[in-house]
Amino acid sequence: MSYPINSGSGSGSGSGQGQRGIGLSNTIHSEVAPCLPLPSLPVFCGAYDQDLRLFDEPRGGGSFRSLNRAEVLSQATRISDLLRQTDVSYLTLRDDTRAVPYGYVEPLELHEQVLRCSSEAFECSTAGPIKEPISTSTVPEKKSFEQSIHITSKAQRDYGATHNYQPDYVVANNISTSSSRKPKVKKKSSDDFSSSVGPDPAELQDATIGNFCELLEDFCGRAEVLSDDRDEAEWLAVPLSDLRMLINEIMSIRAKKLLHLVPVDILVRLLRVLDHQIHRAEGLTIDECEHSDSDIVSSIFCALESIHAALAVMAYNQMQKQLYKEEIIERILEFSRRQIMDVMCVYDPSYRALHKPSENGGFEGDEDEEFDAELGSASKKRRSNKTVKVKKSSINKVSASVNTILQKMCTILGLLKDLLLIERLSDSCILQLVKTSFTTFLVDNIQLLQLKAIGLISGIFYSYTQHRTYVIDEILQLLWKLPSSKRALRSYHLPDEEQRQIQMITALLIQLVHCSANLPEALRQSSSGNPILEVSIDSSYPVKCHEAATEACCYFWTRVLQRFASLKAQDVSEMKSMMENLVMDLLTTLNLPEYPASAPILEVLCVLLLQNAGLKSKDISARTMAIDLLGTIAARLKRDAVLCRRDKFWVLQELVNDDGAADCRYPKDACSICLDGRVEKLFLVCQSCQRSFHADCIGVKEHEVPNRSWQCQFCLCRKHLLVLQSYCKSQFKDDGKKNQSRSEKNPEASDPITNAEIIQQLLLNYLEDVGSDDVHLFVRWFYLCLWCKDDPKSQQKFIYYLARLKSKAIIRDPGIASSLLTKDSVKKITLALGQNNSFSRGFDKILHMLLASLRENSPVIRAKALRAVSIIVEADPEVLCDKRVQLAVEGRFCDSAISAREAALELVGRHISSHPDVGLKYFEKVAERIKDTGVSVRKRAIKIIRDMCTSNANFSEFTNACIEILSRVSDDESSIQDLVCKTFYEFWFEEPSGSETQFFGDGSSVPLEVAKKTEQIVEMLRRMPNHQLLVTVIKRNLALDFFPQSAKAAGINPVSLASVRKRCELMCKCLLEKILQVEEMNGEEVEVRALPYVLVLHAFCVVDPTLCAPSSDPSQFVVTLQPYLKTQ
């Protein structure tokens, strides 16, 4: 699987919306260079005025009249009739032409009206016999011919990528040159074409095919010896330059879609010549030569170019069956296999050591290695090989000839993938291809070849369903054979801005699951809208496809878990590490738009881990591994849910209001994207939903601002889906006999378009924009299968779903040619849609089972489960407020193991400061742990309660918290005593930062902050039987003897001592003022209310009487209190 697609490299809109789509991270320059498209003209073909006019009207804003007016719309029927009868035979049209946007084009209601009148109004039809497609070369009908210019086609992108690797041998890829022997004839023909005013397409087509046949005859004639008694030695070697020129010509006629019209006898002769060129190089190896210009290298190059040419012919649709001779195909596969083996031996010395030629000429590693529980010797040999220094085989030390062979093999693997999709190959060929492709993953520095191998294996998995289990078994065998040093090697670049990478084997697994959804062949081959609606498959087919994908995932994970259960103890950690790497890769790709299969793969794993293979297993190692993996997965699900909930992206807000109506909570005078209301920026207002957008936020430049009514992408997509519904309904009416049973219950036109459907379609449009290759088609089909599974009406809307798959082929509106959504926006959309799938909905089940594991008898299981719950809580601390979680965690506060009790407290304590409401819920049970028998548990409980008080200034349980902490001031453990005193120092006696300007009462010298602290002490003492414990705290705080030994050794800072003493004096003064205030009140309970203040003052006096004899007025306290003292 390769992703040589970059939306920014083509003739993009130039709208400045940033990089979108799959980048070029997994390709190299030599593969990309031939793929760059030529500039495309916008629809008005360079006209000065891009606005289409049906009437003669003067230019200018004042006199401009919109096409969306009644007198124009009323002509929709006549326009559709006109378009139906239009003859475009004089035009040269490309079948795969796609609309190219020019800035922002207003969607015309006229377009939709015409489409309703005639669904085929905008289809390009040509008069005469060239209208029908040609399906066989025995009755060659005429076909429209494209002019001989450079056209970037899919064939060139896939197979013309390696011509420039070897400058000494390469001939320029000029598709207008037919033969090196007849350049003048070709040029003359080309000149005749260009000078002709109206060339007949049939004549042009015949001339092109004739020139190509002449070239093939000339090529074959120079390779054959005229002899009646001919044997293999009489076939002449063809120069490398001629072979490469032949490839250029084949690729040229492939691009013009004429190769299947070439007479089959000529192609058979060509393949026979090429086969002999391959046969000449059999048995040769690149290791046998030291110079890149040797005869051996030249012969190998000629054979590889012959393979390239032969596959370019065979890997083309509509070719005759006579071409596919098993002998030729097997020779191609065998020679390719040997070259891949040789290349890998050069690139990786460890592979060379394991696959040295044996005495019988074979390779030691070629034999099939059984993947059984006893671990074959070859597997052990691979696993134990950890000392080879791979850096010695770095790519800059590989010879140019080996590198050229590597690049050519990349091209050949790509063609082999197309061949096996066209022609049914024998089982032996398929199994050989699978084996050869999988060996590429054992070697470093050949990433491009590995990507091609992924594509080839995926093609086999898709087309040859009987070999799917074999392919999955090969993946498992490969996982175990990989050396430990390479198991975490992540060399597959993901198409996102963060440049993240995953393992190649994980990328292969994801791609195989995409292919297991059984995309209908008719959908894969169709390029227009009509064949989509003519697909003859059952309406329940997408659901069955999803079941097939689930079955593939289930088989893979079942085999993995079976392997884990059969391992010996010393191998368990290695297997667990392998599974963790796989899960981490899948989580990395989760909710990325290009990898929808990641969620089902993980979902199946979770289901199995929740059953007998995991949490219910009798093996404790399997249960602990299951808990670890489930905790990691659940934490990611919760993290994604939090991100989605907090995201204010305007498109996602529509999911909250999914009733089909516009959301009225959007900002009126601010951009819906950046929420900035600066007026100096250019604003666009959607005429449907009235949302405002900055032009630069949606990627529209100032000179591209439409001068007519404009709609946002969301409203535009809603409009197109409505048209799509009407179109599907009209097709049902026109073809009622074929689809009568389905059309009777077809409610597409009446069902409202939901916001979720619109957002889904935005994602599909984006994926169609960034790539039109099979890889992206499989991805879009996989999304449809997922959505059909969750839609109870999917069978009734089956054709509508199919139409959405290729909506742009049906609705040819420039307004949807480019989605204008950035990659980041699409990732947010994918994340939001992912919250509604069954995998995300399974979070509660996973959490429930993990909480149940907290009650297991085994302390190891309980500890693992507590750690799993902890990482979930890290993702969203609000989980602690869940009643189920609270009961489970509080139950671990009383666990028999001290470590478990401490871990449970730690789990709660980490989130006290950020979530004060959590502290309030857990306070009572945490306070009970202050009396725990474990010293570490008591310490942790005190610290948690301290954090509860300090993080929330209005903590309602502050007084009870102080009482609980104070109860441990006489603890048997001195460290806990110190912790208690230090806690109250931070509560009451530590000087706060900043200056205090407010004072307690009029004329008072006591700061308000000190008065509040004093009141807290009094309130605490009211609920205590005596003040003896308070005396201890005051005494130790005045001496500051609870600091660590290191601080004591350095000496207590006298400034700190003086600061504490001053605060104590202020507290005493505050107590005196409070006593006077209470005594001055009228009431019978004056003495009761004054007593706590007196007791606190007494506690200070017990510690140090001089606190009540300030130097400024030593007799103040005695004189003030003496009248209130009574004697019995």
TrEMBL record:
Keyword Zinc tagged: yes
Annotated PHD-type domain residues: 668-718
GO biological process: one example: establishment of protein localization to chromatin
Compositionally skewed regions (Gly residues) per UniProt: 9-21
Domain of life: Eukaryota
A GO cellular component annotation in the UniProt record: Scc2-Scc4 cohesin loading complex
Keywords: Metal-binding, Zinc, Zinc-finger
Any one GO molecular function term: cohesin loader activity
InterPro entries, alphabetized: ARM-like (IPR011989), ARM-type_fold (IPR016024), Cohesin_HEAT (IPR026003), Scc2/Nipped-B (IPR033031), Zinc_finger_PHD-type_CS (IPR019786), Znf_FYVE_PHD (IPR011011), Znf_PHD (IPR001965), Znf_PHD-finger (IPR019787)
Gene3D superfamilies per the UniProt record, alphabetical: Leucine-rich Repeat Variant, Zinc/RING finger domain, C3HC4 (zinc finger)
Region: Disordered, residue numbers: 1-23, 180-202
Pfam family, one: PHD
Protein name, UniProt field: PHD-type domain-containing protein
Species in which this protein is naturally found: Castanea mollissima (Chinese chestnut)
Organism lineage string: Eukaryota, Viridiplantae, Streptophyta, Embryophyta, Tracheophyta
